[in-house]
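Homework help board

Subject: predicted structure for assignment chain

Our instructor gave us this sequence and asked us to write out the predicted structure in token form, then describe one feature. I got the tokens but I'm not sure how to describe them. Can anyone check?
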Amino acid sequence: MATASRTGATRLHRSLSKEIMFFEILVRLPTKYLLRCRAVCRAWRRTTSKRRFLLAHHARQPALPIICSVQHGDGRYLSIQAFDHQAADAQIQPVARLDDTFSLAASCDGLLILSLGAMCNHVSVCNTVTRQHAPLRQLQGFTVMTLYPHRPTGEYRILLHMESIRVHMQPKSKIGCYVFVLGSDQPPRYIGEPEASFALCMGNPCLVRDSLHWFPPLQRGSESRVIFAYDTAAESFRQKGAPVVHANSYIFEVDDTLGIYSYDDDTEIVEILVLQNYENEVWNYKCQVKLPSAEIMGQLGSSTCFWNVSVVSRDGDFLLQVTYDRWLFCVDTEGKLVDSLHLDCKHTYACNLQLKQSLVPHNFFRH
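My token output:
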């Protein structure tokens, strides 16, 4: 009896040790290191390939801002990179290098939507970690607005827009918005033409509370800017009130709510507001940051520069990204220059997209 008890305790200990090993330690590894761990033994490979583990691993991965660069000259290409702003020392992680006729249209859960050509003649989905890709032939001529998870079904869906100049590229199509399910053999489904739908194609939205949010420029005939929201479950558009801000203002996601940052070129000041109460549309003024312009221009070796500014959330605070030519500068909310990164490619810009790497398998790559 004592021997049987000890045997049972040993098995329990081994089971707990295995659970801790995989779901407390290995689950935290970056994807490239996890792939190396699979070579240790068959048991490790088997466990780390199971969907339960891969979903847990994906949930632990950081959502990193995507930085794009375009290289001209002898070699013309688009460089897609992830900016690890959460590391002790800021790091740039290469993601993909493509011909410059490609453009990055959307990103969600490690999946990238790529568009080829000015008329969106070819659209494809890929996972750069698993090196899988699939053409999306049904999307020819459509403008990709965004890619998002559809919680009720577990599907990934693409929100699309058809413009008047491209209607001829799709039989029986009409101007407006469409929804396409990744992996489906059906054509995109028409859902209507919301107000200012074309303007929503100009920027990448933020997904908060299962709704996509845009903050387009002031529309002709309107007295104030509004936030457009798309309920991904109900497949309906609505408007939300927005604070009065500088014309050069953009929306971003911060701690499961919305933020808006404004940049004044004349004063070189960035202002940040956060939506404190989503239902009642109450906004909270968070901070004002004066860019360290002299220090930045000193590193650039120039007295006049027209740079791009964006804001990302980091550990309950904010980080300002300043991009110009080959440079990425990081500024904290005290206005201090905390990092400077010199990149390989010119024409660097932040595209308000994030990459959260994933090894989770998808059936649409098997078609």
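Reply (TA_rk): Your tokens look well-formed. For the description, you could write something like this. The chain has two domains: 2-51, 61-365. That's the kind of observation they're looking for.
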